[in-house]
Each structure stands twice: as C-alpha cells, then as structure tokens.
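Input record, target 12 of the design panel.
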C-alpha cells in the first residue's frame, strides 16, 4: 500500500518495521459530548486503514485512546478541563460525564461497522504511566515547573539538537496556541505535561504526583498509552488534520525526548475536515451534526459510511442532507444487488459445494481485472471513490452473478457495508409480479432455468429482487 505521510509530506510505500506486525494508534475522542460526523469521518479513516492492512495479510495491533481528563478549553494550556466544565453544566461529576459519553462512543462503533481496536485506552486508567513518562522527560532535561504546572521545555529540546514541529510549521503551532499567553512560560510553544489543581476548589479528577497534586496535560496520555501497549515506536498514527498544529508535534517531542531521539512513529496519516453546506461546521452554527442526528433524520448510519467513501480522505468533503440521501440510495441499491446475486449463487451452486468453473477465458480475465482494479485503488493512498467506481462497474458487467456476489463479499471486507448480512426487505407486490414469480417457480421445477432467469430479469426491471427462502421464493425491493 502507498499512503501519504504527513511527516514527509509525500505518498510513500507502507513498509512496517516488524512485519507482519503493524503497530497502529488513533487519537480518539474527548468524551465530554457526542462526536460530530466530522469526528466520525476520522474514525472511519482509521477503520479503512485497519481493514486494508488486514486484507493485505498484515497483523494490525490497533489502539485508540479515550481522553477523559486533561483536555483544556484552550490549546494554550489555559481554561477549564472540558470534562470538568461539562460536569458543572450538567450537574454531574466528571466521572459520570466521561462514562456516559465514553460508553456511547464504544456502542456507536457498531452502527458504522467499525473494527474495534484491541483496546479503548482511557487516560484516567493510566495516570501512573503518564507520571512515569514525565519523569523520564525530566531526567532528559526538558521539564520545568511554574505556578500552574509542569511544562515541556521546547527551547532546551531544540538546543539538544532536536527538531520541534516537524508535522506543522511555526506559524501553525503559534495559531494552535490560540491567543492566550501564560507569562510564566519560557516559550509560547511550551506545553503542559502536568497541571496543578486549583486551590479555590477541589476537582473531580486529580491525583498526587512528584510535582504536586493535579492532573495530566492532554498530550502526554497518547505517548504513555501507545508506548505501554504498542512499544516505543509506532508504525502508523492517525488523527484529524486539526491535530497537526499542536497535539501531534507535542506527542513526537515528548516521546522522542524520553527515548533519546528514537523515532516515535514512521507514518502519520491525517483526515481532512468535513464541511457542511459549503461552510465550516460548528456547534454555534447548529450544524455540528452527530450520529444521533443522522438516525433521527431516518438514515441508516451505514449511509453515512458510504458518503464518507465518496470523497478522498485528504480532501474536504461537503456534507448535505441531499448528499447523504444519495449515498443511502446507492447503498440500498448495492444491498439489493448483493441479495439478488446471492440468490443466483444459491441456485447455481451444485450439490457438494463445488462450482462448475467452465467460464470462458475472457470472463476469467475480466474477474481478475476487477480484483486488481479494486486493490489498486485502495492501495493507492486509499482512493475509495475509485474503488467504489470499480464496484459499480463490476455490478453492471456481464460476468456471472455468482462471481459478482463473491467479489462483492470480498470487496466488502474493506468497504464495511455488511453486504452479506442483507437479505432484502419484503414488500407488497403487484398481481402481475406475483404471477411472474409463480411462473418462475414452475419453470425452475421443470428445470427450465434459462426461461426462469428471463422472468427474474423482468422482475428486476419492475424493481423487484428475488430471495429464495425455505418456504418458497419472496420478492424484495431493489
């Protein structure tokens, strides 16, 4: 597979450090609210990478964090912890807020048919590891203490011969720090490793540390948890492009500071923003839609997954309800094709399960070309729009339905639409359709399969697919 590496700013061949193992980490949500459909686009990207690498025969060890402490309302390490702030607003504890939204996030994975990581790693479950990692960074000489916390010393890091901000430029880092400035910080780029609890009130989440009672900064959790479960070097790290400014550069700096410059991650992959109706998404605009909003609108969440695949992950994608409806219609049609092809597969499958492979060389070549074209697309920096185009070209081709179904099931290992689970929706049918269905059954009983297939095609033209069940054939909607 070739994929764009944000670190080198070019498309590269993906070569894991210890094949067939792949160490993969994704920055998950801060669990103080429901993720937006922009967030879910990033998680679908991670799922696609996982599926493609698995499809290629690699063994992917996949971890995603859940940020349940330490993410402040400003990237400049000022403001309130987002969990604590939400807890006050909802009249709950920060622990209750984190559990509610964290549980919802994990449960929602199934709605988009996302491959679950081997671990959803919570920051609050790894305070010990974060404190230990800060200690290692301190031993290396890149930590200093001020009134509100313990900070990473960027200037000292650079003076030691390291490069800070490889994933972004200096202006992006400055912009990421917003406009608030802590006058005690040595450098505006310095970031908090550990924040001290305020003296005026007790926080829901705070712990003792060698530097004082408090809580970890946002960035340190990802380094500590990825190192614990995946080792000190990652093959691939994913996230949204909003993390290019500060979070991911800070991850690199603190990790490599603790490991004496050992490269923290080989490939960095970032998904582009989702826009809505041609503009920026935002809660203040009322267009920061969630998965709950998608379902409330009467849409299958997998229609949203299909919609994501219509755009390249590195390009902005414009969400509209009309575009989602079009994606839902396309998915529905693809499901119906899969159900119809399965029915034909069942009819042509000989007893004993061995298929008659007497296909012409042209047909066999065509089947192989579809396989190659699909794989070429997904392995070319996850070109999913091109992969979908191959799927539809195959579906409309003249290769046997048996092979269409087999290819759809194989392609779906990456697409993630659960096509093999769809059996069609029973519908009210016209008298003419019922008559044709009865005639088809009579022809099949007489082994006049060619004529029966002609009726099936006629029913398809009328908008029906046929599903053979134990009690007889039924019609479903295309």
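The sequence produced for target 12 reads:
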């Amino acid at each position: 597979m070739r994929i764009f590496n944000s670190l080198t700013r070019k498309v590269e061949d993906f070569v894991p450090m210890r094949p067939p193992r792949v160490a993969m980490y994704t920055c998950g949500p801060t669990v103080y609210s429901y993720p937006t459909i922009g967030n879910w686009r990033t998680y679908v990207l991670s799922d696609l990478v996982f599926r493609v690498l698995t499809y290629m025969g690699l063994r992917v060890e996949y971890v995603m964090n859940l940020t349940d402490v330490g993410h402040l309302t400003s990237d400049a390490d000022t403001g309130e912890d987002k969990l604590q702030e939400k807890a006050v607003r909802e009249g709950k504890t920060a622990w209750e807020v984190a559990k509610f939204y964290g549980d919802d996030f994990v449960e929602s994975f199934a709605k988009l048919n996302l491959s679950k990581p081997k671990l959803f790693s919570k920051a609050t479950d790894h305070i010990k590891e974060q404190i230990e990692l800060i200690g290692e960074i301190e031993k290396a000489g890149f930590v200093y203490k001020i009134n509100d916390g313990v900070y990473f010393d960027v200037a000292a890091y650079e003076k030691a011969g390291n490069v800070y901000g490889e994933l972004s430029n200096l202006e992006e880092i400055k912009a990421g720090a917003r406009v608030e400035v802590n006058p005690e910080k040595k450098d505006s780029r310095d970031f908090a490793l550990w924040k001290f609890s305020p003296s005026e009130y007790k926080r829901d989440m705070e712990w003792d540390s060698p530097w004082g009672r408090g809580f970890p900064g946002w960035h340190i959790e990802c380094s500590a948890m990825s190192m614990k479960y995946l080792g000190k070097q990652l093959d691939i790290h994913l996230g949204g492009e909003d993390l290019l400014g500060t979070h991911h550069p800070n991850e690199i700096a603190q990790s490599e500071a603790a490991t004496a410059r050992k490269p923290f991650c080989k490939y960095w992959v970032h998904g582009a923003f989702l826009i809505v109706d041609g503009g920026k998404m935002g809660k203040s605009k009322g267009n920061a839609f969630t998965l709950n909003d998608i379902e409330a609108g009467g849409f299958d969440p997998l229609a949203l997954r299909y919609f994501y695949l219509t755009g390249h992950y590195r390009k902005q994608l414009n969400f509209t309800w009309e575009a989602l409806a079009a994606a839902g219609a396309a998915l529905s049609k693809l499901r119906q094709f899969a159900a119809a092809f399965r029915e034909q597969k069942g009819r042509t499958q000989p007893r004993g399960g061995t298929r008659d492979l007497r296909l012409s060389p042209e047909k066999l070549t065509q089947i192989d070309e579809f396989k190659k074209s699909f794989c070429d697309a997904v392995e070319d920096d996850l070109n999913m729009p091109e992969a979908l185009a191959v799927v539809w070209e195959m579906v409309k081709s003249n290769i046997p339905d048996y092979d269409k179904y087999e290819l759809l099931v194989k392609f779906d290992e990456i697409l993630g639409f659960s096509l093999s689970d769809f059996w069609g929706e029973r519908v009210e049918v016209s008298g003419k359709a019922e008559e044709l269905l009865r005639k088809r059954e009579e022809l099949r009983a007489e082994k006049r399969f060619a004529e029966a297939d002609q009726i099936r095609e006629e029913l398809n033209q009328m908008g029906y697919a046929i599903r053979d069940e134990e009690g007889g054939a039924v019609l479903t909607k295309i």
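The first strand starts at residue 2 and ends at 5.
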